[in-house]
């Protein structure tokens, strides 16, 4: 029994290393993925919200937990960052997840899984682990996702480049907000001044 498990584990590790090299050569659009340095069976991914979608501007962190029998059995799929599409930290029922081992194809790779996840995220079909929210709510969550992810130690350690990008965006957002407030204050001051001038003119 131990020998069989060890064999499966070795097969899974070899396949996942090959999948990793393939992803580095040919990245999945809008998705970045990294295995835990301490456990190649647990991968973390980040979906960058595609343009012209309710998720635009957001970064969505999740994880894939592979069985030792991979690629002959599918992984569990989780979303960690609130997205308005999926429950957080809940196994998702997708055709590419461990909810459907009967439809799983061993030829599918990590890239296939991530592509399928993004595709389903952009749809509105319900499934176990999905939730219904308005596009407005999804856009609000996309803005909140940046600061949410910075509080996650695993996220910041596995994705340092994305972390720096998010920090830069948050700094820019604060500066733009301050500039907008300043502009608004100038406009309001002018309006108040014009109103006072009109009042003085009327009193004369």
UniProtKB/TrEMBL annotation:
It comes from the Eukaryota. Residues 11-161 form the UBC core domain. Keywords: ATP-binding, Endoplasmic reticulum, Membrane, Nucleotide-binding, Transferase, Transmembrane, Transmembrane helix, Ubl conjugation pathway. SUPFAM superfamilies: UBC-like (SSF54495). Coiled coil: none annotated. It holds the Pfam family UQ_con. Residues 193-204 have a biased composition (Polar residues). One of its GO terms (molecular function) is ATP binding. The lineage of its organism: Eukaryota, Metazoa, Ecdysozoa, Arthropoda, Crustacea. Its EC number is 2.3.2.23. Its main location: endoplasmic reticulum. This is Ubiquitin-conjugating enzyme E2 J2. One of its GO terms (cellular component) is endoplasmic reticulum membrane. Residues 179-204 are annotated as: Disordered. Catalyzes the covalent attachment of ubiquitin to other proteins. Seems to function in the selective degradation of misfolded membrane proteins from the endoplasmic reticulum (ERAD). In cooperation with the GATOR2 complex, catalyzes 'Lys-6'-linked ubiquitination of NPRL2. InterPro entries: Ub_conjugating_enzyme (IPR050113), UBC (IPR000608), UBQ-conjugating_enzyme/RWD (IPR016135). SMART domains: UBCc. It is found in: Endoplasmic reticulum membrane.
């Amino acid at each position: 029994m131990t020998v069989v498990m060890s064999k499966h584990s070795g097969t899974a590790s070899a396949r996942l290393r090959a999948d990793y090299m393939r992803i580095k050569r040919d990245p999945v659009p809008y998705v970045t993925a990294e295995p835990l340095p301490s456990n190649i069976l647990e991968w973390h991914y980040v979906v960058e919200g595609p343009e012209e979608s309710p998720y635009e501007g957001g970064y969505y962190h999740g994880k894939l937990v592979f069985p030792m029998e991979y690629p002959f059995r599918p992984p569990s799929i989780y979303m960690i960052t609130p997205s308005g599409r999926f429950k957080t930290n809940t196994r998702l029922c997708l055709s590419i997840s461990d909810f459907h081992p009967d439809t799983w194809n061993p030829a599918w790779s990590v890239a296939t899984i991530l592509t399928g996840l993004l595709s389903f995220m952009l749809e509105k079909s319900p499934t176990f682990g999905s939730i219904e929210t308005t596009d407005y709510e999804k856009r609000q969550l996309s803005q909140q996702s940046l600061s949410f992810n910075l509080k996650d130690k695993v996220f910041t350690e596995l994705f340092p480049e994305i972390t720096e990008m998010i920090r830069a965006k948050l700094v820019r957002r604060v500066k733009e907000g301050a500039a907008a407030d300043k502009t608004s204050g100038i406009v309001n001051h002018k309006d108040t001044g014009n109103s006072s001038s009109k009042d003085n003119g009327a009193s004369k």
